[in-house]
């Protein structure tokens, strides 16, 4: 007997049935939801990767200009000392 069936076999119930259509519908629904979640997570990761790349690019482009300014400042400062 199946859980929840109270009538003996042959009296209105045919026994346990495995509804293949319902099973396939559930599997397809799961695949669609899993694919949608995959696309959302993939999009979030892509945005984070682009954000990190942009901050890395900005930090790389700013660091040399700061160090160049500092190097030129030091060069001027040392050249002024050598003149004295």
Low-confidence stretches: none
Give the C-alpha Rg.
Answer: 35 Å
pLDDT averaged over residues:
76
For the biggest sheet, the summary is: none
Proportion in β-strands: under 5%
Shape: rod-shaped
Run of helices and strands = H
N- to C-terminal distance: 106 Å
Structural class: mainly alpha
Number of discrete helical segments: 1
Helix content: over 70%
Q: Count all strands and give the number.
A: 0
Q: Quick recap of the structure?
A:
By secondary structure, the chain is mainly α. The protein is built from 1 helix and no strands.
Characteristic terms for this protein:
mainly alpha, 0% strand, 84 residues
Describe the structure in your own words.
The chain contains one helix and no strands. It is an all-alpha fold and 84 residues long. It has a domain at 50-84. The protein is rod-shaped. The N and C termini lie far apart (106 Å).
Question: Topology, please?
Answer:
Blueprint lengths: L19 H64 L1
């Amino acid at each position: 007997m199946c859980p929840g069936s109270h009538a003996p076999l042959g009296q209105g119930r045919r026994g346990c049935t495995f509804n293949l259509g319902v099973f396939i519908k559930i599997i397809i629904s799961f695949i669609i939801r899993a694919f949608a979640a995959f696309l959302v997570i993939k999009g979030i990761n892509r945005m984070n990767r682009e954000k990190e790349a942009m901050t890395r690019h900005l930090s790389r482009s700013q660091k040399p200009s700061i160090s160049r300014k500092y190097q030129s400042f030091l060069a001027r400062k040392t050249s002024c000392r050598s003149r004295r």
